[in-house]
Amino acid sequence: MSMNNSPNVFLDPNANRFQVNIINESHDNNETSQEDVGSDPPHYEETSFTDEAHNRLRISYRPGKKELYDNFLQNGEKMEASLHPYDTHTKMYYLQTFGHNTVDPVPKIDYYRNTGSISGNKLNRPSLLEIHEQLAKNIAVTTGSVERVANGESTTGDEAAVSKEEENKSGLVKFGWVKGVLVRCMLNIWGVMLFIRLSWIIGQAGIGLGVIIILLATMVTSITGLSTSAIATNGFVRGGGAYYLISRSLGPEFGGSIGLIFAFANAVAVAMYVVGFAETVVELLKESDTLMVDESNDIRIIGTITVVCLLGISVAGMEWEAKAQVILLIVLLVAIANFFIGTVIPTNNEKKARGFFNYQASIFAENFGPDFRSGEGFFSVFAIFFPAATGILAGANISGDLKDPQIAIPKGTMLAILITTVAYIGVAICAASCVVRDATGNINDTVVPGMSCNGSACSLGYDFSRCASQPCDYGLMNNFQVMSMVSGFGPLITAGIFSATLSSALASLVSAPKVFQALCKDNVYKGLEFFAKGYGKNNEPIRGYVLTFLIAMAFILIAELNTIAPIISNFFLASYALINFSCFHASYAKSPGWRPAFRYYNMWVSLFGALLCCGVMFVINWWAALITYAIELFLYIYVTYKKPEVNWGSSTQALYYVNALDSALALTTVEDHVKNFRPQCIVLTGAPMIRPALLDITHTFTKNNGLCICCEVYTGPRKLCVKEMNSGMAKKQAWLTKNKRKAFYAAVAADSFRDGVKSLLQASGLGRMKPNTLVIGFKKDWRNAPATQVENYVGIIHDAFDFELGMIIVRISQGFDISQFPYFSQYTEELEKLEQERLALEATIKENDFEERKSGICGFFRKATTLNISKHELKKESTINTMQSMHVGEFNQKLLEASTQFKKKQGKGTIDIWWLFDDGGLTILIPYILSIRKKWKNCKLRIFTGGKANRIEEEKLVMASLLSKFRIKFADINIICDINIKPNKESWKFFEEMIEPYRLHESCKDITTAEKLKRETPWKITDAELEAFKEKSYRQVRLNELLQEHSRAANLIVLSLPVARKGVVSDYLYMAWLEILSKNLPPTLMVRGNHKNVLTFYS
């Protein structure tokens, strides 16, 4: 029972809706204030579900103000009046839902519309942030509609104007399922075949096989109809027919390829149907001896006039075209009825001589079996009949002009298939039950007693036996005008032929531009956007009509339609096959978004239908099928190569996900094996574009080989970090894709950098596709950085080892971070600005007329491009001059060059591997992978390792044997014997000076002072620590001397990373080791595996 005591109730016509009250926090009106006095606590109207006969939508209002609410539209979709008569600009209004004041909106269809929807305005629901965060108390709100206030959406004046214009836009012509789909499909399916060739088909195949031929063709179209219905009811359908259905299901590659050939097929079909009409007219002229020139030219003349008239009807608008279709359908139905009536009208001697005897059981029995002649067979006859069953997409092709495509397409298409199939079978059986296969047409060929007579006509008094030895002109097998002979009034059959040909031509003339316009609007083919423009209230594709007219005229004048007809039939069949496959594919992908309202389909039946269509293509004409496949494959490859920037949520995308998920799950059941080890790296690049060189070197050995995840850690106020992180995820992944980096982007928000990296190390990856190696750049500014940053940096290395990950630290002389490069942000902004200008220019070009494009646009584009380039060059010159004046140009130039050094092909040289400690083989595997890459293939591997002076040759042999077993090619092996000797004094002095600022020097102070300093600066290097690790420090300094001596000219150095014991070696001492070890060297990779084998010599 409702708790709302308000007597003013607005009835909601929709069933099962809950009550929604709109209330105000406070009002400035005196009347309101007085009314509210003494109401403690204030009374809020409650909302509940009600069992009343009419569920109600209640709105609270002030007494005496009910008339102000009378303008509210109470259908739950639109309210034109302002929210409340006491609206102010300083108070916040809320939607009261389920008895609570909230900005949380109720479910509404307008939230789910696409931007720019023609069926209604898209509304934006409050974001999760607005619902989740604290609500500001004083929010300025302008007077507006209930949607804007209650749903938290602000609408600009321009948007409101556009919205109002769309609402007031009237005169759109939309068709229901009868006029829009049923009529069109019936007219397109019933063609000339019904009146001219069906009798011949039934004569060849007989009633039994003839009905099977019709049912087989119907099975193909019915399965396609079911698939079409399923796809059409899986969401809102726009204009474009078969192209729209296929492209939104399978993606632009399939949709773009089939859309172009489908539109072309419809355009050529116009010529085919018009020529069929012209041939019938010419036959009539020939009978009356009134030919204008000759048969061929008369066909061209009449065809041209006909196409011009049909174009006029189409350009006049869909409403006129629909009226013409209805008139043609009436004529066609009258012609068919005329045939059935004629079968029961008693025949005369002339018709009997031509083989027509009304319904006779003997004729039915004789014509039931097949009698294939002239080399015909079941499949050849089927190939001739099948085009008569096509045309089922005539309604779907104008999907944009239907009131409700989701209802109209399934109902109209399936009913049209049923009606036309019944008509085909009925005409075939009736004709075969009344007319013999062969007749002479001579009324004197009666049965003569004593003479042998064969055939069912003998029992009816006529002897047509001589037709077995010589050609006859009449009967099912010989006379294409059987229906005219049988009908009650012959000229009506001629009118039916005219109606069938003209209606099919008109349907194709409308379908081709509509499909082509949808294809051009999607900009799948960049050069065709000119034809996307529509005119008038129905957005008619006038330019497409003209193009279709020109194509039809060309083929009418060429008059070689017998050659092109099989290809056109195969084009239609290819469309049917892809529609069936689309339905199967969408079902197979198991996407939650695949929820067709039409339930009478099956994915395996759809797959069978697709295969059946492909088979029928080869039955009709094998070479035409091959041509169709070749054209479709070419267009598919073209669209795939061009990669149109569209995202339609196709089933192809869904299947990618399903396959990836299945593969990832299957991978979890596969045990790790050393032979299948591959580096799977987490790279701490931050934003990928900030440290491109670090990404490039990692990408070199992970591309097509292993996982690469570019990671970024956001630290700071959590709210701002999360907002910035969420807004940048897609952009940075898109940057990786655009720059052809086969890597993923991941980001976390954390209290500290180290905590964020910990999260990434533990949670990144999926199943077996988890990172096993951490890649970071060397912290070049560690000596100037705060102690917490150094602690975090070294802590990350410890964490990686704790989680048993390999570790790679990369160092280049100029550093990785180019975000500090002067004018970097300005340079990036300038590039973005130039890109926006280019897109704006392209948009301007698209709006120009065809003549402008032909004459002046190319020159204008070239001029604009030159202008942009000149501006860019001037800007670049200005930047360089400024930088030179700042005396930093040389350094910044080196920085930019360093940031791209790993993108370039490396010249002949070496990769020097200092494999000092056995870490499982990662130190040797990484450079090996690099050496087989295209950019590094000219670099030889040189191996350096430690050994004893008296065993140099033996050590070389041992290492060579090991590498040969690992099948790793190398150019040279060097045994270093003097690693453990002391470095020279200059080098050691440099090291001591480097660590001096970070030493505690506690031995020079009293115990109390030393203890205090240890507590205040625990990160400093103690004298005891330095003494304990003096030998290790000597080794790092000495190694740098050896590296300078042997590897100064190497293209890349890979050496074993020293490991610092956690809690024993201080952070600054460890950083000093890394600094002195890799100082003044070519690009260096300090590598340490997780001490698990990554190499094996077993097969």
Automatic annotation (TrEMBL):
InterPro entries: AA-permease/SLC12A_dom, AA_permease_N, SLC12_C, Slc12a1, SLC12A1/SLC12A2, SLC12A_fam
Main localization (coarse): membrane
GO molecular function: sodium:potassium:chloride symporter activity
Cellular component terms per the entry's GO annotation: apical plasma membrane
Pfam family, one: AA_permease_N
BP GO terms, sorted: cell volume homeostasis; chloride ion homeostasis; potassium ion homeostasis; potassium ion import across plasma membrane; sodium ion homeostasis
Keyword annotations: Cell membrane, Chloride, Coiled coil, Glycoprotein, Ion transport, Membrane, Phosphoprotein, Potassium, Potassium transport, Sodium, Sodium transport, Symport, Transmembrane, Transmembrane helix, Transport
Stretches for region Disordered: 27-48
Coiled-coil region list: 824-854
Catalysed reactions listed for this entry: K(+)(out) + 2 chloride(out) + Na(+)(out) = K(+)(in) + 2 chloride(in) + Na(+)(in)
Residues annotated as domain Amino acid permease N-terminal: 87-153
Domain (SLC12A transporter C-terminal): residue spans on this chain: 691-1099
Localization, UniProt: Cell membrane
Entry's transmembrane regions: 181-203, 209-237, 258-279, 299-319, 326-345, 378-400, 412-436, 542-561, 567-588, 600-624
Amino acid permease/ SLC12A domain boundaries: 180-682
Membrane topology annotation: Multi-pass membrane protein
Family designation: Belongs to the SLC12A transporter family.
Protein name according to UniProt: Solute carrier family 12 member 1
